[in-house]
Design goal:
The structure holds 2 protein chains of 2 kinds. The mean pLDDT of chain A is 95. Chain A is globular, with a radius of gyration of 13 Å. The termini of chain A are far apart. Chain A contains no helices and 11 strands. By secondary structure, chain A is mainly beta. Chain B is mostly beta strands. In chain B, a hairpin with a 2-residue loop joins strand 5 and strand 6. The relative contact order of chain B is 0.33. The model of chain B has no long low-confidence stretch (mean pLDDT 94). The chains are: A mainly beta, B mainly beta. At the A-B interface, strand 4, strand 5, strand 9 and strand 10 of A face strand 10 of B.
């Protein structure tokens, strides 16, 4: 059974730092991996989608990588800003076309 | 485009009551799904639909019913509410099962 883990559960860093969020999954048979952002009391916003054949995707200050063989993905945020404070979730689309979710990393950027 | 809309935003029910959570999208997406989000856990799939007239069960379907009479609407029905169904419910849509997912703002449900 596919399981997705995100460590750490919470992270607090000063503004301006570059940071990495981690996502690991147990079964490498995936179609894609997505990173989402969730603000308190709000829905989820898709940030990046990496197909299983891809190694990385970039959008502005965000870069997501995928190493399917080792079951790992990272979300790199450059030059962090207080507006980046949110919970970041990753989800993999498994071999049954089901999205399996991590519990998220709560990120706080201190001004 | 309004994207994915959900109503109501908040709801309090008593045990045994029934209700329908509404979800609509205006992006002509074929794939729609319902999730619940509980503290400290990842989202869990309740039901999904790959097109009008087609629905299927997800990971946690018990106690919930869905129907998909149109491409735009995908309501979720709680048949007899239980305290274990206290959660935040999200509706999502995408162009296909492997496409980028678009989420509604959620419904926060409390069952007393």
């Amino acid at each position: 059974k596919q399981e997705v883990t995100q460590i750490p559960a919470a992270l607090s860093v000063p503004e301006g730092e570059n940071l990495v969020l981690n996502c690991s999954f147990t079964d490498s048979a995936i179609y894609n991996l997505q990173w989402f952002r969730q603000d308190p009391g709000k829905g989820l916003t898709s940030l990046l989608l990496i197909q299983s054949s891809q190694r990385e995707q970039t959008s502005g200050r965000l870069n997501a990588s995928l190493d399917k063989s080792s079951g790992r993905s990272t979300l790199y945020i450059a030059a962090s800003q207080p507006g980046d404070s949110a919970t970041y979730l990753c989800a993999v689309l498994d071999s049954n076309y089901q999205l399996i979710w991590g519990a998220g990393t709560k990120l706080i950027i201190k001004p | 485009n309004a994207g994915v809309t959900q109503t109501p935003k908040f709801q309090v029910l008593k045990t045994g009551q029934s209700m329908t959570l509404q979800c609509a999208q205006d992006m002509n997406h074929e794939y729609m799904s319902w999730y619940r989000q509980d503290p400290g856990m990842g989202l869990r799939l309740i039901h999904y639909s790959v097109g009008a007239g087609i629905t299927d069960q997800g990971e946690v379907p018990n106690g919930y019913n869905v129907s998909r009479s149109t491409t735009e609407d995908f309501p979720l029905r709680l048949l007899s509410a239980a305290p274990s169904q206290t959660s935040v419910y999200f509706c999502a849509s995408s162009t296909g099962t492997s496409g980028r997912q678009f989420f509604g703002p959620g419904t926060r449900l409390t069952v007393l």
